[in-house]
Amino acid sequence: MKEAATSRQEHTDRFYALLDDLAVRIGGARRLSDCSAASGWPTHGVYFFFQDGEVRAEQGHPRVVRVGTHALTATSKTTLWTRLAQHRGQLSGTNPGGGDHRGSIFRNHVGNALLATGEWPAEVADSWPKRKATAQQRQDERLLELAVTAHIAAMPLLWLDVPERALRGTIEVNAIALLSQRAGGIDPPSPAWLGRHAANTNVQTSGLWNSNHVNDHYDPSFLDDLAACTRSLPR
Known about the structure:
11% strand, four-stranded antiparallel sheet, 235 residues, 4 strands, alpha+beta
């Protein structure tokens, strides 16, 4: 057990060291509140969200709170920016600050946690979990969608150019499994982390805004893949 714990510590430390290198190569983390399609994004990639106030145990280093990717099927045309924009919501246009939590599980999780920690109309709590909603229900949900957009748009994130579909999936799945508290992750969330109030138990107890792969075992060889993709970027 001690050897396994040591290995996980080493693997987690290496993971974060690689993210530090990635940050240098891409010019640092961004917040989606400051971003647009013209900000410069690879077509395909893996992304890592952080959150103010969430740091690694005994390290003081920012802690990853969500890992994600996109376009894992051959027919998907979603780009990295398209997916990030779905998570963030709109910052301008006809519905500034709005968004659609039915098109983003990340938004859904954050909205459920906000519902649990604030006073919202009963009709919003009733309609939010439903897969479909009427125009009136969507209008009733707008203030909560605004709060979700503000929450996600303020999170710093790093992104990694990963053109190969299968490799994106490998990095995403194993990074989640490495970091998840449910699978033995070593860096717990802070007592104030909003995700503790999520409706989904996997989110509550994993320390991540992820519900899939949080119970998986990780293969440390994914760190070599992460390193290779990072080294391919110019410094």
